[in-house]
Amino acid sequence: MELTTFWFIAIAVLFTGYFILEGFDFGVGVLLPVLGRDDRERRALINTIGPVWDGNEVWVITAGGAMFAAFPHWYASLFSGFYLLLFLILIGLIVRGVAFEYRGKGDGERWRRRWDRCIVAGSIVPAFLWGVVVANIVRGVPLDANFDHTGSFWSLLNPYALLGGLTTLALFTAHGAYFLHLKTTGDLAERARALGLKIGTAAAVPALAFLLWTQLAHGNGLTLALVVLAVLALLAGLALDYTGRGGWAFAATALTIGLASAALFCALWPDVLPSTGDPANSLTRENAAATDKTLGIMTWAALIFLPVVLLYQGWTYWVFRKRVAVERIPA
């Protein structure tokens, strides 16, 4: 396997892992005021992701670093052309992170409510805009001969990209509901299960439309297989949630997000950022890549350090695997 192919796959895996893991974090944040009837329940919801949310963000940081080193032209064109979208995502992540830390620093109800709204906004904005970003990468943007983005910010808010944003927001919210069914107890868990069934059913509509559009406009035989499997996994998640199998329902939505993400990256290949104008201006894995020496050094570094990172994160999830019970939250 060529190193450019290896690193394209590696970046796709990193983004896919981020969407699966951070996806349920976003979902919990979106559902905070919906499922949390009082402060104790909202604290219980936050505690389900408290030990892991910041670790989940490491995946996107690593993906961005890998893109910068392996495909510098892709990184430059993407981060300059999509600057405002990525800046809004960053602001959302910062606001959410600050809210997690500051929510418990005050005793007043208004203080906590204010930070709860920040958690919700800091979850909705990135969950929606990541779909917009990825959809535009697959669809392509206008690039000149220097691989610079020549379109406007508003051109990124096209119907296909907006449908992609709605899809990620809906899927992540359903993913979060299934996670809460898995991680909480009693009445809160049952309400999360019931809400997850409703949200999952509603999420199926934009998800099916977006995947079908992707297949018709950009797909191939491999993407068709991945799309079909993603749809089957989504339907399986609904059935499993209906029967009360929270762990399997959560696994099914994780599989749905993973397969859908894989389908998008397969639809993109061998380009990394297509040009909607002159196809000769498209960024591909060849013309966007770093030197072979750089890719070789990165490969050895990844082979050494990636297993350590995976083991550490797996250990974190194992340590904090128990359910969160509302009655154990101090009044």
From TrEMBL:
<feature type="transmembrane region" description="Helical">
    <location>
        <begin position="119"/>
        <end position="140"/>
    </location>
</feature>
<dbReference type="GO" id="GO:0016682">
    <property type="term" value="F:oxidoreductase activity, acting on diphenols and related substances as donors, oxygen as acceptor"/>
</dbReference>
<keyword id="KW-1003">Cell membrane</keyword>
<comment type="similarity">
    <text>Belongs to the cytochrome ubiquinol oxidase subunit 2 family.</text>
</comment>
<keyword id="KW-0479">Metal-binding</keyword>
<feature type="transmembrane region" description="Helical">
    <location>
        <begin position="6"/>
        <end position="35"/>
    </location>
</feature>
<feature type="transmembrane region" description="Helical">
    <location>
        <begin position="81"/>
        <end position="99"/>
    </location>
</feature>
<dbReference type="GO" id="GO:0019646">
    <property type="term" value="P:aerobic electron transport chain"/>
</dbReference>
<keyword id="KW-0349">Heme</keyword>
<dbReference type="GO" id="GO:0046872">
    <property type="term" value="F:metal ion binding"/>
</dbReference>
<dbReference type="InterPro" id="IPR003317">
    <property type="entry name" value="Cyt-d_oxidase_su2"/>
</dbReference>
<keyword id="KW-0813">Transport</keyword>
<keyword id="KW-1133">Transmembrane helix</keyword>
<feature type="transmembrane region" description="Helical">
    <location>
        <begin position="160"/>
        <end position="182"/>
    </location>
</feature>
<feature type="transmembrane region" description="Helical">
    <location>
        <begin position="194"/>
        <end position="216"/>
    </location>
</feature>
<feature type="transmembrane region" description="Helical">
    <location>
        <begin position="222"/>
        <end position="240"/>
    </location>
</feature>
<keyword id="KW-0472">Membrane</keyword>
<keyword id="KW-0408">Iron</keyword>
<dbReference type="GO" id="GO:0005886">
    <property type="term" value="C:plasma membrane"/>
</dbReference>
<keyword id="KW-0249">Electron transport</keyword>
<protein>
    <submittedName>
        <fullName>Cytochrome d ubiquinol oxidase subunit II</fullName>
    </submittedName>
</protein>
<dbReference type="GO" id="GO:0070069">
    <property type="term" value="C:cytochrome complex"/>
</dbReference>
<feature type="transmembrane region" description="Helical">
    <location>
        <begin position="247"/>
        <end position="270"/>
    </location>
</feature>
<dbReference type="GO" id="GO:0009055">
    <property type="term" value="F:electron transfer activity"/>
</dbReference>
<feature type="transmembrane region" description="Helical">
    <location>
        <begin position="297"/>
        <end position="320"/>
    </location>
</feature>
<keyword id="KW-0812">Transmembrane</keyword>
<dbReference type="Pfam" id="PF02322">
    <property type="entry name" value="Cyt_bd_oxida_II"/>
</dbReference>
